[in-house]
Structure formats: C-alpha cells, structure tokens
Amino acid sequence: MNRIEIIEKTILFVKEKLAGDSSGHDWWHIFRVWNMAKKIQETEGGDLFMIEMAALLHDVADWKFYDNEEEGLQVIIDFLSEQNLENEIVDQIIDIIKNVSFKGAGVKDKMISVEGKIV
Q1: pTM score, two decimals?
Q2: Which residues in the chain show pLDDT less than 50?
Q3: Cβ atoms of residues 85 and 9 within 8 Å
C-alpha cells in the first residue's frame, strides 16, 4: 500500500473514531489541524507523510475517549501496524502524538522533531 492510500485509510479511521464527538475534537478540528500542518510544512520542511499522519491521528488517543491515554495510543499503534509501516515510522508518529497535546500550564514541551513542532 502506498502512502497516499495510507493517508486515505487514516482519514476514514479518524472519522470513524471521532464520529459523534461533541468536545471539539471532531473530524473538522482534525481537518483544520491537518491542513494547517501541511501549509506550515511547505515553509518549515520535515517529512510530509509523518506530519500528515500525526496531524490526522493526534486526538484519537485523547483521554476523553478512553480510560487512559495508553489505551488510546495502543489503538493507534494497532492501526499503524495494520498499514505495514516500519517500526521507526510508527514510533515517530506515536512520539509526536504523545507530546503534542496541551497538558496545561507548567508542563514543559518535549517536542524535538520538526514534524512534531509543526503538528
């Protein structure tokens, strides 16, 4: 499966997972983040595929949807594994997702990669 097909499959996966959300973490929020991330990438660089995948998946593991963040992250890991992505890519996407969400005042930003900073 090529990367365009994986992006398309990811869009469907995210729409399904976030269907019916009323917290502001619905598909349209994801859509805006995804498009803004692609626009920023045009100037800042970074791996576009990694940026797109992390932007699309960034709220799927949100604590509002699961008993804990680890459960949500495992859902994403399982999905990415089904796409036959290399472990290194899966690890990088998961790292971005774990570090992208707003945790509140006083929590240090641990984002290192340009891809994560873009998302």
Answers
A1: 0.89
A2: none
A3: no
